[in-house]
Amino acid sequence: MRRFYIIIMSFSLVFILSGCNPIEFKSTSKIISPENKDLMIKGKWYIDDYKIIRQVKVKNHKLNKYLNTYIQIDSDFLYVGGDVYQDVKYKYRRVNTHNYFMNNSEINPKALGIYIDELEVVSASLDGKVLYEYIKYDENKLMFSSDGIYYFASKRGNLVDKDVRGLYSNNTIGEEIQDVNKNKRSGVLIGLRSQRNQTENGNINESEYRTLWISSTDKDEVRVKEKPNIIFPRISGFWELGVKKDVVNGYENETVYVKTYGYKENKYIRDYFKDANDNVYRNVNFISNDYIALESIKNDKNNTIVSDEYVVLPLDNIQQEKGLKIVDIEGQEAKVVQEKSFKSVIESNKDLKAKLETNLNEESFTVVRKNGHWAFKGRVRPQSKDEELFLDYNIKILPSKKLIVYDELKVPWNKIKERMPEALDAYTSPNNDIAILISKSSLFVYSIKNGELSERPLKKVKLNEEESVIMSEWALDEFVYKWDKIFR
C-alpha cells in the first residue's frame, strides 16, 4: 500500500510540474523497488568496442585509455582506464531509454544498437562528483560515455582482481594518478556576471559573463585561467552558458542559452517571453549542476521598467515557460518557510500593502549570495502592471545539496572580516587549503592553515566594475587535473 501511494504521488507531481505546456525533454527516472541494486554491476568487465557519437577528432591516446582494457568494480572501489578510485559511492536508477540518450547525448539509442524501452543506470561518484555513469543494457553488457565516445564492455567475472586492489596501496598506479596525488589539490570554477548600466541616451548595456578557473597545489602554487561565458560541470560533462541579444519588431530581447561545452550546436535554448511590445533583458543570478536562477526585466519603448521577475528553472528543461516552485527543489518545509517569510514582509510594510500582491507566488524566488553562503530570496510583485514597485524578502532556509553540492565556510565569517574588512563574499575549499575572498574591485586567493587565513594573499585578480559571482563549483585532488585539461 505504501509503495502504491508513493507511485501515485510521484505521477501526480510529474503532472503538476509539467503544467499545460508541452515539454520537449521528459524526466528519465521512475520509481523503483527499495531493493539495493547499487552494486548490480559489481565485477570485472572488458571494454571491447566503441562508437563515436559526435563529429570530433578522436586522439589515439583517448581510445587507448579505455579500449581493450578492464573495468573493475567493487563496493567502494573502481578501476577504469588505468585510474584507481577508493571510497566510491554507487547509485542506481531505472530510466526511459529514449529520454535518457536524448537528454544526455542528443542521440537516438537505436544508433547505438539499443532497442529496449528501459535501462538500468549506475552512477559512480567520489566526494559528491560523478566519475562515470554505467548503463546496463543486457545481463552481461554495459556501456559508458567519455569525451563524445560510447564504450561497450562485456562481463568477464563477478570479482575484482586482488592485485588491482593492491595497486592503490602499493602506489603502483599510472603516472597520471601518481602525479595528482603527490600534493593536496583544490580548484574552483567561479562564474562572474557584470552589472548592466543605462547610457545617457537611454540604451541598456549588456551584462558580460566569464569564468575563472582557479587551481592550487598544496596551498602554494596558484594558477588562474579565464574563459568567456560560464563554463560549468554536469553529470553528462562540461556545459557552457551564454546570453545573446536579438531584435524582435524593433525591441531588444535577450536569450539565455546553454549547450554542451566544446561543440558548436546548442543543446537547449531558453527563448520564452519574446515580447513584441517590450524590451526584455535577462540576468543570470545563479547556476549550478542542475538549476539556473534568472531575473527577467521588461522595459517599454522609453526603457521604463514594466516588470522585473524571478524564475528558477531545471537545466534539463530550460525551455519550459513556468518556473519551479521552491517546494519542487527543497520540499514541503521550504514552502512553509516561504509562506511565513512572505506574510511577515507584507505585514511589516503596511504602507505598501495596498499596492503589492497579497497572495504568495511560489515561483517568484531566486538564489543569491549572503555572508559567504548561497541563500533564497523571494519577490513580492505589484498588484497593477502600471506599478514599478516590487519588494524582496529573505526566505530563511538553507539550500540543500540538491541545489548545490558544497556551500560551507571552513573559516568563520568574522575571521574573514578580521583579515580583510572590505570582503563582501568568501568561498573555501572542501580540502580546507585555500579561500577565495571577494571585495568590490578584486578577487583574492588565500591559503588556509589551522583554520586561519594566510597573512597575505597568494593571488589577486582584478574584477570588472560591479561584477558579481553567480557560480562556484569545486574540484578536489585528481579532479583538479582533469578539470584543468578540459578548461584548457
Can you put this structure into words, describing what you see?
The protein has about 500 residues and is an alpha+beta fold. It folds into two domains: about 20-180, no CATH class; about 185-485, no CATH class. The protein has helices at about 1-20, 60-65, 95-105, 160-170, 175-180, 325-330, 330-345, 415-420, 480-485; strands at about 45-50, 70-75, 75-80, 85, 90-95, 120-125, 130-140, 140-145, 150-155, 185-195, 210-215, 220-230, 230-235, 235-250, 250-260, 270, 280-285, 290-300, 305-315, 365-370, 375-380, 390-395, 425-430, 435-440, 440-450, 450-455, 460, 465-475. Strand 24 and strand 25 (about 440-450) form a beta hairpin. The N and C termini lie far apart (about 55 Å). This is Putative lipoprotein. It comes from Clostridium putrefaciens.
Low-confidence spans: pLDDT under 50, at least 5 residues? 1-36, 168-182
Percent of residues in β-strands: 35-45%
Whole-number radius of gyration? 24 Å
Discrete helix count: 9
Average pLDDT, rounded to a whole number, is: 81
Give the strand line-up of the largest sheet.
4-3-2-1-9-8-7-6-5
Keywords: Lipoprotein
Protein name: Putative lipoprotein
Organism: Clostridium putrefaciens
